[in-house]
Design brief:
Length: 230
C-alpha cells in the first residue's frame, strides 16, 4: 500500500501542475472504478454488505477531498515536506481510534508506532520555506481526510474490490459534480496531450492497487498496523 500510494501521489502531484486539480482527480477516480469492476468480475467478488458499503462510501467522500488537497499541495510545495505532514496525520488518527476501540497493542509494536510517528514528524519540519502556508494547511487537511478514510475503510469485514467499486463510484460522482459545477473544459484539457491522459490513468491504477493492498493489510494485520506502514 505504501509503495503504490506513494507512486500514485507522486504522479497525481505532477498531473495537478498541468491540469485543474479536480479534473486530474476525476480521471484517476474513473480509471480506478473501471479497474475495480474488472478485478471484481475476474475474482468473482460480489458487492459489499450494506454496512460495509456505507463505511466505504463515507470514506470515499472524505478521501476524495483529501486527494484533491494533497494534489494541490504537492503541485504548490515541496513533496518532501507536504507528504510527511499528510502522513503523520494519516497514521495517527487510525492508530488513536484503533487503540481506543481494540486496546493497546503489544509493547514492541506500540514502540514501533511511536518511532514511526516521530520519524515522520522530524522529516516534516525540514522545510526550507518554499512550501507556503496554503500548502501546509492543505497537507494538514489531506492528512485528516486520509486518516478518516483509513478508519472507515478499515471497518470493512470482507471483500476487496467489491468495496472499492462502491468507493470509486462514490468518489467519482462527487468529483464529477464539482467539475461540472466549476465548468472545467474536460475534452479541451486533454486534447493533444496523450501522455498526460496516460499519466492520469496510471495514477488511477496505482491508487486502486494501493487501496486494495491496504484493505488486505487491515483485514489481516489490523487497522493500526496497516495505517502506520501505509
Amino acid at each position: 500500500a505504501a509503495t503504490f500510494w506513494g507512486a500514485g501521489d507522486f504522479g497525481g502531484g505532477i498531473a495537478a501542475k498541468r491540469l485543474p486539480v479536480f479534473l486530474a482527480l476525476l480521471g484517476s477516480q474513473v480509471v480506478g472504478l473501471a479497474g475495480a469492476l474488472v478485478a471484481m468480475a475476474i475474482l468473482g467478488e460480489g458487492l459489499p454488505s450494506p454496512s460495509d458499503a456505507a463505511w466505504v462510501a463515507v470514506g470515499a467522500l472524505v478521501g476524495a477531498v483529501g486527494l484533491a488537497g494533497l494534489y494541490r499541495a504537492l503541485a504548490d510545495g515541496q513533496m518532501g515536506v507536504v507528504a510527511p505532514i499528510t502522513g503523520v496525520l494519516t497514521a495517527a488518527i487510525p492508530v488513536t481510534i484503533g487503540i481506543a476501540t481494540a486496546g493497546l497493542p503489544a509493547p514492541a509494536r506500540l514502540a514501533g508506532f511511536g518511532l514511526a510517528l516521530v520519524a515522520i514528524v522530524l522529516v516534516s519540519i525540514a522545510d526550507d520555506g518554499s512550501t507556503g502556508r496554503g500548502g501546509i494547511l492543505m497537507a494538514i487537511g489531506a492528512g485528516v481526510s486520509f486518516g478518516l478514510y483509513s478508519t472507515c475503510v478499515g471497518q470493512v469485514e470482507e471483500g476487496v474490490f467489491g468495496p472499492l467499486v462502491v468507493a470509486r463510484a462514490t468518489g467519482a460522482a462527487l468529483v464529477l459534480v464539482i467539475v461540472l459545477a466549476s465548468r472545467v473544459p474536460i475534452r479541451g484539457s486533454f486534447r493533444g496531450r496523450p501522455r498526460l491522459l496516460g499519466l492520469v490513468a496510471l495514477v488511477g491504477i496505482l491508487d486502486l492497487v494501493g487501496n486494495a493492498s491496504f484493505l488486505v493489510a487491515a483485514q489481516a494485520g489490523g487497522l493500526a498496523l496497516a495505517a502506520v506502514l501505509g
